Please model this.
Amino acid sequence: MTLPDPALYNSENDGPLSLVIEYFLKKTGFHEQAAETLRKALDEVIDGMRTGRWSIDSLEKTEKTYIGTKVEILFKFDFELPDGQKLDTRIEDQEVDIKCTVLHDWMIPKEAVGEICLLVKIDDRRSRFWIGVVRAHPYLLRTGKNRDGKTSISASGKQSIHWIVEEGKLPSNLIAELNADIRNQIFSHRGGQSRVNELFRLVQNRIIPRVAIETVARQKDPMKRVRDARKILLREGIHILGHQGNDPERARSLGLPVPHKGEMISTNRLPK
Model:
């Protein structure tokens, strides 16, 4: 595309860019859905059930790179965005490239220079995420390039990002947030059932998402381990509540977070 002189370019007068920004600003529940999509993307790459890993830090360099591809795939699927002809997708009939980073900078390929980019940044340690839109005009980019010919947005260029979500709350990575001693105690058990028992024994009165259970159990049917843990821990006065039957109301009556589908919570507040 032919770009205007940097001195003449004003993103506020960029009609196609404004259309893309407005698309997201008008989308009901965008923040919540985006948070779920990004959490799912991270969890699928970490793949705790098969690998026993629970942190981005444990990934190989190539796996960290794949997070961007996974975000693109799930973002397009969850928001029903079509493939683009030149770039990743089309939004309001505009070609848009989706770029994601778990560090500080987005790498902009040659084909995206001058084009609209949807920028995603994830900080899993702080459970935060950012989503913004920018036209990758050359004057917003650094002059240096890597071996693949990609560049990044300059410090001053980042001031031109139009933020749709700024420091949004990402669903937490429970295993990563645990005290190291508690986490080590859980994983010290060799059997999946024993690890799941210890998880619900040591982590009480807070929501335990399914992905955490899968990571600890490392078995094809992790929820069977939960059903068995219910019986075992009940003898210790520990109740495991889920999203079905009377469990949500019991959790609510105790002032506990209420589990949703796939989530569990353990507590010793109920009578034996």
The chain has two domains: 11-169, 177-267. Residues 61-78 form the longest helix (18 residues). The mean pLDDT is 92.
